[in-house]
Design a protein that fits this description.
By secondary structure, this protein is of the alpha/beta class. It is built from nine helices and 29 strands.
Length: 407
């Protein structure tokens, strides 16, 4: 079945709620966890699941993403029919850009029709999780389904934040509700509901049929969740696959996060610093692949004033130098430099950030190539920070890429 599956990754989202991290890059290209990009998790799942034909539909500020795919993911053999290929909008069906998740696939219908595939796996490029898609594809085939939706168990008190599936005892989907006040519960489990993860398997004939029909509907938003799932439910061949319900080839941490907001992005990074992380990046047979910069090993050294360089409960990537500074509960991407007597707490510093002598940072995200001047403070004075930077609802201060401080 794997050999007859075409994978489509939707990676064209604007990512406005992640601004300014998406000021110059697409959401799937945003750095994560010190050394990765967000899309690496979805691509790694494809790699370990045995999927070798992958189309990445790009759109918004896609250069950084395309470069990452070229540098880090040119790993398949085209001579064997394998590929990871980015597909920008080509306006083959009209003069407009991608106008919704379903429309993005519809505009590339010719790629589906000539693929020779029997099944299509549709994924999002902006979620953090580990999943064996082969197990879901097997479930789809066993159910003789036209469409299968991956769902995770969520507490009913949180279910109003998601699209929720109402299913029978065989997990055939009977109803789909977007952010319901009173969510339908899982059969036999009144405390939990099934929330859509935005992961879909289609039989290709049915997908082509429903996309063509949806494209003709002027009232449709051309979205898989809002339009395609409801359109297929009445066929009684749409099923819910419970995330983590089958063993597959990956340990079942059942971790899934949509990092679509500054706070969710910050919290997902901080999850990696827990004594027992919610997602296991150290599983040897399901390692997360990415592009590696050619940087020397990280190191801590005494500063010129004699202070020891300290890293406590932090992730320090290659090329990081902590020279007499103190870094605690933070994530440092490659080639970050923390100078003498600087203090960094609960923060995410992206590639090439330099923290000057005596600077103090807490609860902030500093984007690439920023020099924080000597003695500067970020995250301590909300009024001062709000005049210069974006502050998330939970108080995380975000310094944009290449920001220049006033002297």
């Amino acid at each position: 079945m794997i050999d007859n599956t075409l994978t489509i990754i939707l990676a064209g989202g604007h990512g406005s709620r992640l601004y300014p991290l998406t000021q110059e890059r697409a959401k799937p290209a945003v750095p994560f966890g010190g050394k990765y990009r967000v899309i690496d998790f979805t691509l790694t799942n494809c790699l370990h699941s045995g999927l070798r034909r992958v189309l990445v539909l790009t759109q918004y500020k896609s250069f950084s993403l395309q470069k990452h795919l070229r540098d880090g993911w040119s790993i398949f053999n085209p001579e064997l029919g394998e590929f990871i290929t980015h597909v920008p909008p080509q306006m083959r069906t009209g003069d407009h850009w991608y106008g919704g998740t379903a429309d993005a696939v519809f505009q590339n219908l010719y790629l589906l029709e000539r693929s020779g595939a029997k099944w299509v796996l549709v994924l999002s490029g902006d979620h953090i999780y580990r999943m064996d898609y082969a197990a879901m594809l097997k479930f789809h085939q066993e159910k003789n389904a036209e469409m299968t939706v991956a769902c995770m168990d969520v507490d009913t008190r949180q279910a109003s934040q998601f699209g929720v599936m109402s299913v029978d005892n065989d997990y055939c989907i009977k109803r789909f509700e977007e952010k319901p006040e009173i969510p339908a519960t899982i059969p036999g489990d009144p405390d939990h509901a099934l929330a859509s993860m935005g992961i879909y398997v289609f039989s290709i004939e049915k997908l082509i049929e429903v996309l063509k029909s949806d494209a003709k509907d002027a009232a449709s938003s051309h979205d898989f969740g809002h339009d395609i799932i409801p359109a297929l439910i009445d066929s009684n061949h749409v099923f819910a696959y419970r995330f983590g319900s089958t063993k597959g080839r990956v340990t079942q941490d059942k971790y899934w996060r949509d990092v679509g907001t500054l706070d969710s992005y910050y919290e997902a990074n901080m999850d990696l610093l827990k004594p027992i992380p919610s997602i296991d990046l150290y599983q040897p047979d399901w390692s997360i692949r990415t592009y590696h910069t050619q940087s020397p090993p990280a190191r801590t050294v005494p500063g010129y004033e004699g202070s020891e360089g300290i890293s406590i409960n932090s992730i320090t990537s290659s090329g990081v130098v902590i020279s007499g500074g103190s870094v605690q509960q933070s994530i440092l991407s490659p080639d970050v430099f923390v100078d003498d007597e600087a203090f960094v707490f609960g923060s995410i510093l992206l590639n090439g950030v330099r923290v000057g002598k005596g600077a103090r940072l807490q609860h902030c995200i500093v984007d690439k190539d920023v020099f924080v001047p000597d003695g500067e403070t970020i995250g301590f004075d909300k009024v001062k920070d709000a005049e210069r930077f974006t502050i998330s609802p939970n108080g995380v201060v975000v310094v944009p890429k290449g920001y220049q401080f006033m002297e």
